[in-house]
């Protein structure tokens, strides 16, 4: 019991560090910011493959909550790729990388690691940005709105011949597949973030906690969107956006707790190893 109390106290001390308190809000903000250039890129890819922008917009409005689609549609209804779009996307990704850069700084702090030079951390933060954004898009499309997306696709003319059993197969398989993908992606993120090579085996506890936490919170958010979101009541749209922002913030906070769990596990094992050597 005393050992458990010490572990909990040490974990609480790590979470209470200033960097760890600031990180969730910082990460949530830049995660939302990174969605804008990603959505713009998807619109450009759709035009490259001769997919009508109006089709993409119609698909988004049929799939996502009205307030979410209203925010995103303007970023894919432009006039194609040009210098302005390139500049916008470059600046957007660079600014969005500030979130993962904060993860690197926080990881170095809790592990007691001397940070690398700024250029190396910036390059690594860009990689982590791509990794994290792709994971977030997967969660958004598959877990949060996956049922709506599959149902919409099955109702389209080109897919009407497919059996409705496809919907039930998707619902059945999306959670175990999502668990595997999220776990290994988060584990990779936790392993790469510190500016010192720490064996990935010490990242399992935090990765499992974050994966399960993300899936539970996303399931709650998806259920809310499907059953309780109100679009025709005054302030209903505003409340839906606030709920989405709270969802993203909670995901970020769970990610931060996962870092603390890994650091606590690693430091405890290192202390045990030193004690045995002595």
Short description, anyone?
This protein has 278 residues and is an all-alpha fold. It has one domain (2-271). The chain has eleven helices and no strands.
Question: What descriptive keywords fit this protein?
Answer:
globular, 278 residues, mainly alpha, 80% helix
Task: Report what the structure shows.
The protein starts with a helix and ends with a helix. The mean pLDDT is 76. It is mostly helical. It has one domain. The protein contains eleven helices and no strands. Helices cover 80% and strands 0% of the residues. α1 crosses α11 (236-277). The chain has helices at residues 2-15, 18-48, 53-63, 66-72, 83-96, 98-111, 118-144, 146-155, 165-192, 204-227, 236-277.
Helix content: over 70%
Global structural class? mainly alpha
Distance between the termini: 25 Å
The number of helices is 11
Got a strand count? 0
Gyration radius, rounded: 21 Å
Largest sheet: none
Q: How many domains in all?
A: 1
Shape designation: globular
- Pattern of helices and strands: HHHHHHHHHHH
Low-confidence spans: pLDDT under 50, at least 5 residues? Answer: none
Mean model confidence by pLDDT: 76
Portion of residues in beta strands equals under 5%
Chain-wise SSE layout:
Blueprint: H1 2-15, H2 18-48, H3 53-63, H4 66-72, H5 83-96, H6 98-111, H7 118-144, H8 146-155, H9 165-192, H10 204-227, H11 236-277
Helix pairs in contact: 1-11, 2-5, 2-6, 2-7, 2-11, 6-7, 6-11, 7-9, 7-10, 8-9, 9-10, 10-11
